[in-house]
Amino acid sequence: MPEQLGAEAPQHVVPEGDQSAGSEAGNVTRGTKNHDDSDPFVSLRYMEDRKQLETQARAVVTALLAEKGEVYVQGLLQAEIQRVKKKESEAAAIKKKISAATKLAGELKGDIRRETEAKAEEEHMCKNLQAEMKRRSTLTEEATRRMESRRLTLKKDVETSVRDVREKYDDRKRQAMELVEENKRLTDEVAKMRKEFDEARATYADTCKERETYVESLIRSYREVTREVETLEAKIALVRRERQASEQRKASLEKQLESYNSQFGSLSEGQSVEDAERMAKEQREEAEARIAQLESEKKEASEIRLRLDKETATWRAALAAHKRELPRLEKAKLAAEKRCRQAQERARQQLKEDATTTKDQEDGGM
Fold first, then answer.
1. How far apart are CA 156 and CA 240, in angstroms?
2. How many CB atoms lie within 10 A of CB 184?
3. Domain boundary residue among 68, 98, 117?
4. The pLDDT of residue 71 is above 60
5. Does a structural domain hold residue 32?
6. Is the distance from CB of 303 to CB of 167 less than 8 angstroms?
7. If we measure between CA atoms, which residue out of 322, 346, 335, 348 comes closest to residue 194?
8. In angstroms, rounded to a whole number, what is the distance separating the alpha carbons of residues 179 and 172?
9. DSSP string covering 137-162, please?
10. CA–CA separation, 126 vs 257, rounded Å?
11. 232/361 same-domain check
12. Quick check: 211 and 315 in contact, CB under 8 A?
């Protein structure tokens, strides 16, 4: 019986030991991997399982020591240790794979959660977009109705505005035509006035030349008359001196006559006093006539000089008045030309504005 056990031990006990060791290692690994420290009952059961496994292992080792010896048990332990290390390395690899799988599962769960959240958010956004699209559709329909109404109103307003603008354009065109006609009339009038002014200016220039010539001739005549008057005054002075000399000679002759009468009485028979007085009277009358003639000539010369002075003053006043009138006529001419240019410029500007307004209206109507 012992021999049979000894013979069967390598065939049965070793595998059993292997199985026990493997089972123990597996249980220990599973207990280490699967037990939860937070549950006291699980920890207690785990400790009891380990004690039971240790008891079974001790019993198997004692039996093997008794049957096979220590060398066999050491070899068996080394083999079991190698198998346990292999299992541990496999368990570590599996643990790594499980960790990686757990991590991947966590990532997948996170991705799924994010996808779920994104899907929920997209569904929420989709609902919001559908509501917004519905609201916008309603607003679009309402806006379409309003725009149609607004379009019709604007069309009527534009038609009214175009009609008003056309009426205003026609009025402005009529006014522009009137301005053009007025401008033409003013141009003709200005040209006529300018022609008259040029003719009047030429006539005035000719008249001024004639008047200046006449005034110069009057001045020359005045100077000649002045010289003649001076000559006459000199002659009058000479005649006066001659008269005085004649009177002195008369007095002298009377004295001589008295002396002759007193000294030569016999001479009274040949020439009487009356004859001497008559001769003296004739000489005096001749002198007085000569003086009267000279006075008359002097008076006539003075009158001629006064008349020439008066005419000269009149012509000088007329010349000054014409000279003062000439700048006024020049200014009137320049003002008329300026008004004509302004009227032409306003007419051109009005026509340009009317053309621009018409073009804008046509563009707006299209």
1. 116
2. 13
3. 68
4. yes
5. yes
6. no
7. 335
8. 10
9. HHHHHHHHHHHHHHHHHHHHHHHHHH
10. 171
11. yes
12. yes
Compare 283 and 136 and report the one with higher pLDDT. 136
The half-sphere exposure of 247 on its side-chain side, counting CA atoms within 13 A, is: 7
Q: What angle do CA 236, 238, 243 make, to 5 degrees?
A: 90
pTM, to two decimals: 0.28
Mean local confidence (pLDDT), 187-209: 78
- Label each residue of 308-346 as H, E or C: HHHHHHHHHHHHHHHHHHHHHHHHHHHHHHHHHHHHHHH
Q: Which two tokens mark 211?
A: 């008047």
**Cβ partners under 8 Å of residue 302, min gap 6:** 229
Listed in sequence order, the residues at least 6 apart from 312 whose beta carbon sits closer than 8 Å to its beta carbon are: 215, 218, 219, 222
Is residue 12's pLDDT more than 60? no
Based on the fold, state whether residues 64 and 213 are members of the same structural domain: no
* H helix runs in the chain, sequence order: 2-8, 14-34, 40-67, 70-263, 267-270, 273-365
Query: d(Cα 319, Cα 213) in Å, to the nearest integer?
Result: 12
Domain count along the chain: 2
Residue 354 inside a domain? The answer is yes
pLDDT computed for residue 182 by the predictor: 80
d(CA 13, CA 8) in angstroms, rounded, equals 8
User: Which range of residues forms the domain containing residue 356?
Assistant: 155-365
CA distance 235 to 216: 28
Q: Decide if 347 contacts 176 (C-beta within 8 A).
A: yes
CB atoms within 10 A of CB 179: 19
pLDDT digits (tens, 9 = 90+) for 138-173: 888 888 888 888 888 888 888 888 888 888 888 888
Burial of 197 (0-12, 13-18, 19+ CB in 10 A): middle
Termini Cα distance of the chain:
126
Closest C-alpha among 360, 358, 343, 356 to residue 176: 343
Identity (one letter) of the amino acid at 92?
A
CATH number at residue 183: 1.10.287
